[in-house]
Specification:
Length: 127
Amino acid sequence: MQAHQGKRIGGYPPFGYMVDPSDKHKNIINPETAPIVQRMFEMAANGDSINTIAKTFTLEKIPTPLDTVNGTYTGMEWGVSSLQRMLRNKTYLGCMVYNRQRKPSFKSQKRVVNDESQWIITPALSS
């Protein structure tokens, strides 16, 4: 029900966002990491390849999403697949997307990707 209402229902927010301290059902823009996401989209819009973006961010020692979760710069390289996933993520278009994957059984740790027609896509709650 909450997913259909556009409410955040758990997990880590996407890179560039953080959980709103006054409302756990909303993501808000993270002022520390949002400029990285904006630059990534600008570079892609200007025709830079994903490889170029990854190399640029790595050479400039821009923290990766994993670095921001751990809180320390590890020197990890930016991955092409991570950038592709971020550039395709509908959250950056102002949507909340749920039901992307499921577990076949509560006993299993395996996850199965659902067909996009089964995804729940709603506008994100705004402030």
